[in-house]
Inverse folding.
């Protein structure tokens, strides 16, 4: 059993980075995730593992530092919150195009614009539909506990290198700021240069005489070759579906279903208990990967329920993927507070009754 | 005259060769226009890398601009950065691989306009990297638009009546500016418009790489260069124009150099 600590979600991400053998963290302060950089600066991982920590001059710079380091085969990561993640989109698109592994955590706050510093889930579209320009997807993990904030750093690096693709942890201000018990995984050593060269033969580690030069670029001016490249990316995104993850909570006998991820899934779990106490058989379906969206299991569940409530702190973004997955087989409605306000389990229960149970 | 290819074999012999291309340049045909200074600057960097014996330890960063395809011409590992972000990439690579050698190759639009912030902060942190900054006072790749370095009164596609500083701002002395930052170690401006200047530019590039080997900090070599196509001149006229117009505004010399007082 690993070491157990009481930690904030943001601290758990930072500690997990050190333990996951991360080589470099590059970040810029923004509420509600500044604790990640603060924790790392205080913890001095450069003494513990040799990990580089740098406060960049902007989110634009930090994501491009990831581009440089990731292209050289290193395990690199950054964290930010919504407005900062918007600034990073250019760099993320370049990395997706050039197939560079990296880990990005978005501790989402309410928007649009400078919005608020309170939690929200309104960056779902940005995270799961590309975000920057061009045809690409990120591998997106949605933690709903401090435990998963830690675990998904390790998993995130695995997926980033497995698919040579940027991975995003889509968290929110609740999970970033809340303190919970977390069991930390045992430290993984940082890879040596020899291991990096072996694992990442494509990386710019220096052209040794035994190989051709490695070029990292997202540019190919020949449309036929560029089309071939984008089709290669498509195959990769299709293959990612094999790693789709989800969790079923009390779905076996469910007549109604709540679909929610992240902090809304935690709230939804309480709603399930409240509803069941009133005799309404509700289950919770929690997508853990948001891209690839775990649609097959949701499609299966849709055959047993009378209606689905998609719950998200947004105007309704997740709900579009839910509707696509269930093919209009059952009614699907959205509920969620916005702008940094958080719904209570009772508000979700009322919405479930009004929009679904009383109607269908 | 009927010259068979084989006949050259009698002429090109080891003992006859007085000059050859460095092996750090690939055989790819340069994508630059006739009379452009990029080709010379590329050769100087490649020769430096060969002479210092660091080909297998050097990682280069190409910018966005005419030299976006620089990675096609250097036989080393290279990355192509987003517009203006080359020094951010270089920062991370050098910090993650302190024993390797990292340089960026950037034009004036890339380094001084869109990448101004990354440039300033990489300088200020004293990142131990080499920046080769090609200044021809114009955006080449997009077709001759005004750059931050475009001279007062200079006609470009976006200053068709000449650059008016009241309306469009002043030509930016970015090299003088970064020389003021304590993080920079070697800051110099050179040119490639005359053979003597080419030799001096080569010396400066070599000194910059030596500074990185000696872990001294940030080095930047600005190289004044020609753009005959977008200046609307013949290559020869462009060399003269550089001499008569760019150099008076952007004087050649060191702005910060090891052992020299500022």
């Amino acid at each position: 059993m690993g070491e157990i600590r009481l930690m904030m979600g943001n601290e758990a991400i930072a500690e997990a980075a050190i333990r996951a053998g991360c080589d470099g963290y590059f970040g810029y302060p923004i509420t509600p995730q500044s604790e990640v950089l603060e924790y790392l600066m205080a913890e001095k991982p450069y003494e513990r593992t040799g990990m580089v920590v740098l406060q960049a001059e902007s989110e634009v710079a930090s994501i491009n530092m990831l581009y440089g380091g990731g292209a050289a085969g290193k395990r690199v990561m950054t964290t930010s919150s919504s407005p900062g993640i918007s600034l990073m989109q250019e760099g993320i698109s370049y990395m997706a195009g050039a197939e560079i592994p990296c880990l990005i955590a978005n501790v989402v706050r309410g928007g649009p614009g400078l919005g608020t510093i309170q939690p929200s889930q309104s960056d779902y579209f940005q995270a799961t539909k590309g975000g920057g320009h061009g045809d690409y997807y990120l591998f997106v993990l949605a933690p709903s506990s401090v435990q998963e904030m830690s675990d998904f750093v390790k998993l995130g690096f695995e997926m980033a290198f497995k698919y040579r693709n940027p991975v995003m942890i889509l968290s929110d201000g609740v999970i970033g700021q809340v303190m919970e018990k977390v069991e930390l995984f045992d430290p993984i050593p940082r890879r040596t240069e020899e291991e990096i060269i072996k694992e990442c033969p494509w990386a710019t580690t220096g052209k040794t005489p035994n190989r051709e030069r490695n070029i990292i670029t997202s540019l190919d001016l020949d449309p036929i070759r560029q089309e071939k490249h984008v089709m290669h990316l498509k195959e990769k995104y299709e293959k990612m579906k094999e790693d789709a993850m989800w969790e079923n909570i009390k779905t076996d006998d469910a007549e109604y279903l709540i679909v929610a991820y992240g902090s809304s899934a935690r709230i939804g779990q309480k709603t399930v208990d409240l509803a069941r106490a009133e005799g309404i058989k509700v289950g919770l379906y929690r997508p853990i990967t948001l891209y690839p969206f775990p649609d097959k299991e949701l499609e299966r569940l849709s055959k047993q329920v009378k209606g689905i409530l998609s719950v998200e702190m947004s105007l309704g973004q997740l709900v579009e993927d839910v509707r696509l997955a269930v093919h209009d087989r059952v009614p699907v409605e959205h509920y969620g507070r916005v702008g940094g306000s958080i719904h209570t389990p009772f508000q979700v229960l009322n919405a479930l009754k009004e929009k679904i149970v009383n109607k269908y | 005259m009927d010259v068979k290819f084989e006949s050259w074999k009698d002429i090109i012999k080891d003992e006859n060769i007085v000059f050859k291309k460095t092996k750090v340049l690939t055989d790819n045909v340069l994508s630059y226009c006739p009379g452009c200074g990029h080709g010379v600057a590329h050769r100087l960097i490649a020769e430096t890398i060969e002479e210092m014996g660091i080909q297998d330890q050097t990682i280069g960063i190409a910018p966005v601009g005419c030299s976006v395809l620089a990675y096609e011409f250097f036989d080393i590992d290279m990355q192509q950065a987003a517009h203006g972000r080359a020094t951010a990439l270089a920062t991370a690579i050098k910090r993650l691989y302190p024993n390797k050698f990292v340089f960026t190759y950037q034009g004036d639009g890339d380094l001084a306009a869109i990448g101004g912030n990354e440039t300033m902060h990489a300088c200020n942190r004293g990142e131990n990297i080499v920046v080769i900054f090609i200044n021809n006072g114009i955006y080449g790749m997009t077709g001759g638009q005004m750059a931050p370095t475009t001279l007062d009164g200079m006609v470009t596609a976006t200053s068709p009546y000449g650059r008016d500083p009241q309306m469009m701002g002043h030509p930016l002395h970015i090299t003088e500016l970064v020389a003021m930052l304590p993080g920079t170690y070697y800051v110099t401006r050179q040119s490639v418009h005359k053979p003597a200047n080419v030799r001096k530019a080569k010396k400066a590039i070599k000194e910059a790489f030596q500074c990185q080997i000696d872990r001294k900090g940030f080095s930047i070599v600005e190289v004044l260069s020609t753009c005959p196509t977008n200046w609307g001149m013949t290559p020869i006229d462009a060399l003269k124009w550089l001499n008569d117009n760019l150099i008076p505004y952007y004087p050649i010399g060191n702005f910060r150099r090891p052992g020299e007082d500022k």
